[in-house]
Amino acid sequence: MQIVHQIESLRQLIKANRAANPAVRIGFVPTMGFLHRGHASLLEAARKECDVVILSIFVNPLQFGPNEDLERYPRDEERDMAIARETGTDIVFFPQVSEMYPKPTRTMVSVSGVTERLCGASRPGHFDGVATVVTKLLNIVQPDKAYFGMKDAQQVAVIEQMVYDLNIPVTIVPCPIVREEDGLAMSSRNVYLSEEERRQALVLSAALEEAESLLEARKETISPEQLRQTVVRHIQSAPLADIDYVELLSYPDLAPVDFWGSDERIIIAVAVRFGATRLIDNRILHAPVASLSHS
Ligand code: PAF
Predict the structure, then answer these.
(1) Which pTM does this prediction carry?
(2) What is the mean pLDDT of the chain?
(3) Does 2-175 match 188-285 in CATH topology?
C-alpha cells in the first residue's frame, strides 16, 4: 500500500498504473478518516469491482459550519491505515489542508434542488463544501467508479446530480448503510455519545424500522404525513432525543410527498441530537402505488 500526501505524486502513481494497463479500472473511496466498518464496506466493494483501489482521507474544512465539530472531528491515522491495509487498498491519498487549498478557493460547486431540505437546511453551505471537494478529488483521481455510503443519502443524491450536470466521467456507486449489531448506523461521530446517549440513539433505527413495517401493513390507508408522525412520536419517546428533522420525501429528487405517487422511491430521513452529537439515519422504501387517505 502506498501513502501519498501530494496531489502531484498521486497523479504520477495513477499515470503509471494507466500506462502499465490502459484498461485498468480505478475505484475511489473518498472519506474524512476515522474509518469504521461502513468505510470498510466501501473499500471492499471497490476491491471487488476494480483493479486499483484509492482511498482519500481529508477532513474538508469547507463543509463544516462555524459552530460545527471541525476542530474536534475524530482522527486515528494508525487505525485508518490498518483498515486500509486489511481491505486491500492500493493507494491512500492523505493531503494536508494546504495541499488541497493552497489559497482560499474562489470557485465553489453548488447543486440546487436536492440541497434545500434535510441537512442542506440545517447545515447551510455544507453541500457546497462537499460538492466542491468531491469535484476536486474526482478531478485529481479521475476514477472509473467512486463509492459512497447511503447513510448520507442526501450526499449521494447531490453527488449524482453534480456528476450528471457536469458530465464528470465517473460511475457513482451507492453502498448500503452498515449498522452496529443493535441497529445504530455506523458513523465516525458515534464516539462522541455517552453510554446513555448511545443507548437512546437506538430509537432512530427502531423508529425507521417501525415505519417500514407500518407502511407494509397499512399501505392502503396510511398517508405520508401519518407515517412521518409515527416516526416523530417514536423518536420523542427517547428523553434525550432533540429532533432536528424527520422528513418523508421522494428519492433521489428530495421533493415533498403529500400523496403516494406511482412506484416512487421515498426516503424517511432523520437528524436528531443526543447531547452535542447530531446523528442522521434513513430508510429508502417503495411508496404504495396509490393512496386512499391523505390527511
Ligand atoms: O462523506 C464524507 O466523508 C465526506 O462528506 C466526503 C464525501 C469525503 C467529502 O468530504
Answers:
(1) 0.96
(2) 96
(3) no
pLDDT at 262 over 70: no
- What is the DSSP code string of 17-70? HHHH-TTPPEEEEEE-S---HHHHHHHHHHHHH-SEEEEEE---GGGS-TTSST
Helix (H) or strand (E) holding 103: none
58: confidence class by pLDDT, cuts 50, 70, 90:
very high
- Domain 188-285: give its CATH superfamily: Pantoate-beta-alanine ligase, C-terminal domain (3.30.1300.10)
Pocket probe for ligand 1: among 32, 59, 154, the residue whose CB has the most ligand atoms within 8 Å is 32
> In this structure, which CATH number among 3.40.50.261, 3.40.50.720, 3.30.310.50, 3.40.50.620 belongs to the domain 2-175?
3.40.50.620
Does 33 contact ligand 1 (Cβ within 6 A)?
Answer: no
Atom of ligand 1 nearest to the CA of 152: 1
Q: What is the pLDDT of residue 295?
A: 41
Grid cell of 77 as nine digits: 491515522
pLDDT of residue 294: 44
Question: By three-state DSSP, how is residue 138 classified?
Answer: helix
How many angstroms separate the alpha carbon of residue 74 from the centre of ligand 1? 14
